[in-house]
Amino acid sequence: MKEQLQKQLEYVQDRIGEITVYEHIEIKQISDLQRYIEMEKNLIESLYLLGEV
């Protein structure tokens, strides 16, 4: 389970990185960024509770 969470966290962080490299971000990208940041927060909390962060 923790391996899946770590892989998901890596994916989410990659997506956040892809969005934040743009100088001008569109509204859809802002929405995606908010969603990915929330997912990142939840994944980190889950890993923390499993003792992996």
Label this structure with key terms:
single chain; 53 residues; mainly alpha
What features would you describe in this structure?
This protein is mainly α. Helix content is 79%, strand content 0%. It has 2 helices and no strands. Helix 1 (2-20) packs antiparallel against helix 2. The longest helix has 23 residues, at 27-49. The relative contact order is 0.21. The model has no long low-confidence stretch (mean pLDDT 94).
Give the termini separation.
14 Å
| Biggest sheet overview | none
Q: What global shape is seen?
A: elongated
Oligomer: single chain
Structural class by sheet pairing and helices: mainly alpha
| Helix-strand string | HH
Q: Strands, helices and their partners?
A:
Layout: H1 2-20, H2 27-49
Helix pairs in contact: 1-2
Quick summary of this structure?
The protein is mainly alpha-helical and 53 residues long. Helix content is 79%, strand content 0%. Helix 1 runs antiparallel to helix 2.
